[in-house]
Amino acid sequence: MADAAHAPTASEYIVHHLTHFNTTGHAQEKVVDFSVINVDTVFWSVAMGVLGAFFMWRAAKAVTSGVPGRFVGAVESIVEFVHEQARSIVKGDLTYIAPLALVSFVWILLMNTMDLVPLDLIPKAWELFYGATGRDPHHAYMRVVPTADLNATLAMSLVVLGASIYYGIKIKGGGGFVHELFSAPFGAKLVLAPFNFALQLIEYAAKTVSLGMRLFGNMFAGELVFMLIALLGATATWWGFGLHFLTGLGWAIFHILIVVLQAFIFMMLTLVYIGQAHEHH
User: Fold this and answer.
1) pLDDT single digits (tens) 48-106
2) 160 CB burial (10 A radius; 0-12, 13-18, 19+)
3) Where are the domains of the chain?
4) What are phi and psi of 38, to 5 degrees?
5) Which of 22, 112, 196, 218 is catalytic?
6) pTM strictly above 0.85
């Protein structure tokens, strides 16, 4: 991560760990740039999606008419919990909505859980591999928490936006959906139509941005705290190692709650926004 001649400073260490491995081949200063692909975010997102699908597939294959095992029982509890939340919020057909909520919860939970992996474990392995290819290991960037990348969380929130618009048109019809855009919330009067439409656009934009920013902000902050804690171990003193262990353990235990809670909040807001699309104003 640094030249052998000198150890990285605290700021160099954090900047390195906050830099994505992307298609430019060098550090990317912008947080959101649609001309650049953060390869690490894409890789770990897909990897966690495949892992989640594998768990669900194994649970489905293991279901029998008898008493379920612990693994199957745990998966069934999650499925029943998500379905119950969907049924209580969305007043309509749940054929595709409940699975969407389940996927968002499980997928985001797994991506969030990557924040509990020791900070330097995977980046160090990537650094060794990158250096073995003959390239400068100093530039071996690797971030393993997809939800700490605003590109990923906004992409997921855009999917929720698309689902909300889809169900709004499906339930109310194209004409009814457009009529609501220009008639709510102030009423179906021609003079109020521009104001209604502007507020509707602002509402959709605010929902989408806040949904993605909430998940990103919490996971980015958690990742940054782990980096600051890791710096304690770099002091090469007994109190530094002691504080590194104690604070790291305490934050990891507390972060488990954040990991689960953020996945739950994203799932619930997804259901709320889709449920609102079923309502007539």
Assistant:
1) 999 999 999 999 888 876 777 888 989 999 999 999 999 999 988 899 999 999 999 99
2) buried
3) 10-277
4) -80, 100
5) 218
6) yes
- Is residue 143 part of the annotated active site? The answer reads no
Are 270 and 104 in contact by the 8 Å Cβ rule? The answer is yes
Contacts of 194 (CB under 8 A, 6+ apart): none
Active site annotation includes 214: yes
Q: Which of 58, 88, 135, 210 is catalytic?
A: 210
Q: Which two tokens stand for residue 91?
A: 């007043």
pLDDT tens for each residue of 163-198: 999 999 999 999 999 999 998 888 888 888 999 999
Q: Residue with structure tokens 């924040």? A: 115
Q: Is 210 a catalytic residue?
A: yes
Hey, what amino acid is at 98? Answer: A
